[in-house]
Amino acid sequence: MKRAILSCSGMDKQMGSLARELAIRLNEKTGDEVVCPTLLASLPARYEELLKAASLVVIDGCGTRCASKLANKYNAKVEKKILVSEAARELGIDPESGLTPGPNGLKLVEQLLRDVERDLSEETTPGNSVMELAPPEDFLIVTHDKYQFKIPKEGFLFNENDSWVRPVGDKARVGVSDYVQQKLTDITYFEPPALNANVEQFGELGTIESTKSLLEIVAPVAGKVTAMNMELTDNPGLINEDPYGSGWIAEMEMSDLASDTELLLDGEAYAEVVKRKAAEDAG
Predict the structure, then answer these.
(1) Which residues pair with 81 in a beta bridge?
(2) How far is it, in rounded angstroms, from Cα 114 to Cα 249?
(3) Looking at the predicted structure, is the pLDDT value of residue 210 above 90?
(4) What are the tens digits of pLDDT across the range 218-253?
(5) CA dihedral for 21, 193, 94, 99, sign (positive or negative)
(6) Domain 2-121, what fold?
(7) pTM, entire model
(8) Coil, strand, or helix at residue 283?
(9) How far, CA to CA in Å, does 32 sit from each of 6, 194, 233?
(10) Buried b vs exposed e over 239-268: b needs ≥16 C-beta within 10 Å?
(11) Which of 28, 40, 64, 104 has the most beta carbons within 10 angstroms of its beta carbon?
């Protein structure tokens, strides 16, 4: 599939400058077209055909993730995401202050360039094929004051970060619980994980945002993202309406469910967690 590069435009910030430098070097290496974020925001028709034909490498400088939000706004197919500030922490590289990349900043850019080239050279599976799964029908109900929280009785496992996994063989569907969607209230934005991304258990699996707060979705299992619920980009409120059905987040090819299960909870155990959290919220 054809690729393009969408980078942060934060030229007034250190990490934005490094994101721009990485985009330029990636363009020089691959020849992939660079999408101007300002032009995309002001004149999206300019890139309409490109976004239909290409998958994006999205490069954000800081946690604001302007480039990712633009990609999501225009329903772009995202193949790879890089968050420069997070990568700097993980690699233990402290770039110099200032907008002009110094030796440490350039070292970070070179390392990220090698990582991106390696990841993009690996064979990827095109498309967004999803499993056909009926929504659960039998629930445990946790009641606290005027609130009721639904938890599927069977087929689902949970982490204490309020994410669920529904295993089907070596594949799984994941999402967030009824408790957390009620706590967030009206969900207004969904940033999906990158297709084909390899995610560790308790790693980030996209984000959702409401009028109250931003939530990083914590992966209940480790594995490779094989599909995303693209309906959420247009209608993130599906998570509020049906968190265990049409509001699912992503599908994964699991790497080691047996090991991951040791840190997961069945419905009854998670119900106890919800009781405790609801009481703490009320207090």
Answers:
(1) 58
(2) 30
(3) yes
(4) 999 999 999 999 889 889 999 999 999 999 999 999
(5) positive
(6) Rossmann fold (3.40.50)
(7) 0.61
(8) coil
(9) 10, 18, 25
(10) bbeebbeebbbbbbbbbebeebeeebbbbe
(11) 40
Q: Which of 73, 154, 141, 83 is nearest to 112 (CA)?
A: 83
- The CB density around residue 102, as the number of other CB atoms within 10 Å, is 12
Give the pair of three-digit tokens for residue 69: 């939000």
Specify the residue for token string 């239909």: 52
Euclidean distance between CA atoms 204 and 226, whole angstroms: 15
What is the separation of C-alpha 194 from the centre of its chain, rounded to a whole number of angstroms? Answer: 6
The tokens describing 156, both together, are 């689902």
Strand bridging mode 223-228 / 198-199? antiparallel
What is the biggest distance separating any 2 CA atoms in the chain, rounded to whole angstroms? Answer: 60
Q: Where do you find CATH 3.40.50 in the chain?
A: 2-121
Q: Which two tokens stand for residue 124?
A: 């990827």
Strand partners, 207: 191, 216
Q: What CATH class is the domain 139-282?
A: mainly beta
DSSP letter for 263, please. G
CATH 2.40.50.100, the chain: domain bounds: 139-282
